[in-house]
Amino acid sequence: MLRRQSHHVDSALALLVQQFRGKARLEGVLSALARQVQSLEDTLWDLHLERRPGRATGAQLDGIGRIVGLQRGALADGTYRTHLRARIRLLRSTGTPEEILGMISMVVGPGASIELNEYQRATILLAVRGRLTEATDDDVVALVHAAKPAGVRAIAELSEATGVFTFDSDADDEGFGDVYDHDVGGKFSSARDTGEQMS
How far apart are the first and last CA of the chain? Predict the structure, then answer.
C-alpha cells in the first residue's frame, strides 16, 4: 500500500552517519536534494489523487470520460461524476442482477425505488419508481441495455412515485383525466424495451 511521506528533509538528515552530522554545507546540499524529492512526491500524490473520479473536476473528469467512453454533454461535475462511476462499474460487470441494480441505483438518485424481476425466456423487468434526479429516462434505458447479458431481453418501467394512473380513485391526481384540463388524472408509467432505438 502506498503511503505519503511528508518529511523527506528530516528523514534524509536523520540518515546521516554521526561523523557527517553538524556539517552545514553537507546538510544544506542534502536538504536541497530532499526538498526536490519532497516536491516530486507531492506532485505525484496530486496526480494520483486528483485524477480519481471521486475528486476530479472539470478537464480531469472529461479525460476520464474519454478513457471510459462517456461524453459529458451538459452534465455538471457532480452528475457527470456519478455517471462516470456507473460507467466504470458497467465496464467491470458481468451482467448479474445485483450489478445491474447497483449501477442503476447510482444514477437514479436517492428518491427512487428500484426493483428487478427475472422472468422465463431470458427477460428482466427493471421497475424504477420515483423522480429521477441524476439521470433521464433515456440514460436509465441505455444503461440497462448496456448492462444486461447478451441474449437477455430487458424492459425498463419508469414512473414517478406520485400521480400514477389508477382505475379507482377519488383524488384529482389519479384516475382518468379530463379532456378540458390536462392536469387532472394520473400519469401512465413508461415501459421501454431496452433494445428499442433511442432518438
Answer: 46
pLDDT tens profile 70-97 = 888 888 888 888 888 888 888 888 888 8
Check pLDDT > 50 for residue 199.
Answer: no
The neighbour count for residue 56, using CB atoms within 10 Å, is: 20
Cα–Cα distance for residue pair 128/118, rounded to 1 Å:
15
Rounded Cα–Cα distance for residues 34 and 47 (Å): 20
Contact status, residue 118 vs residue 99, Cβ threshold 8 Å = no
79: Cβ–Cβ under 8 A, 6 or more apart, which residues?
134
pLDDT > 90 in the chain, percent = 9
Q: Tell me the average pLDDT across 134-147.
A: 81
Determine contact, residues 95/148, Cβ cutoff 8 Å. Answer: yes
The answer for residues whose C-beta is within 8 angstroms of residue 13's C-beta and 6 or more apart is: 21, 27, 30, 31, 34
pLDDT at 198 > cutoff 50: no
What one-letter code names the amino acid at 45?
A: W
User: Which residues, other chains included, contact 57 with Cβ-Cβ below 8 Å and sequence gap of 6+?
Assistant: 77
Can you tell me the distance from the alpha carbon of 80 to that of 85, in angstroms, rounded to the nearest whole number? 9
Per the CB < 8 A criterion, the answer to whether 115 and 93 are in contact is: no
